[in-house]
Amino acid sequence: xxxxxxxxxxxxxxxxxxxxxxxxxxxxxxxxxxxxxxxxxxxxxxxxxxxxxxxxxxxxxxxxxxxxxxxxxxxxxxxxxxxxxxxxxxxxxxxxxxxxxxxxxxxxxxxxxxxxxxxxxxxxxxxxxxxxxxxxxxxxxxxxxxxxxxxxxxxxxxxxxxxxxxxxxxxxxxxxxxxxxxxxxxxxxxxxxxxxxxxxxxxxxxxxxxxxxxxxxxxxxxxxxxxxxxxxxxxxxxxxx
Length: 241
What we know:
InterPro entries: DUF2344
Protein name: Radical SAM-linked protein
CATH topology of the largest domain: Alpha-Beta Plaits
Pfam family, one: DUF2344
Organism: Lentzea flaviverrucosa
Shape: elongated
Region (Disordered): 221-241
Structural class: alpha+beta
CATH architecture of the largest domain: 2-Layer Sandwich
């Protein structure tokens, strides 16, 4: 049996798709591509596909991970090509490596997020971020199926900084004329999970920052934090083995 580790994206309208639907779409694409999948045993065999830290519904991602087990050798380069043809626009396989041992989940303990806040001046956002980082604790309310719970966001946030809007900004002159604060933040994967909307709620709590339109969040990377607070590519060990 061969195990393959894939990095894929979730872009455009698919950010509103649930993880369950993404998983079903992926498994259908594997069947259409003729991938010789390994199956579990028992009365209801299912493909051996393991998902790692799926992004929440409503956000985009450039760095989602899944492990796929096959019963025959598959060339990772060839698999990437046939899968991209079988998958819908928005799900793109950007990397595939053969697993060389170890546990992929243990190589991921944080995510880097890009959060775009249209209608918010970068200076206003930077002031709010400064107040947030200076705090030892920032609690926000989260609505769960069991009622409202309080969540301390601050310990999970490793870093946060404000970037200027890119000069291309989708080549839209109208978009460039509007203020847009861009927050880049690295967040530890703790329990319960701290999501981008929790970070935005924390900025509202500490600085009364309320974007006039919904923010757009994209996960840019996942990995293990090194000694300098940077993320290490979780597939790097497989490439080096």
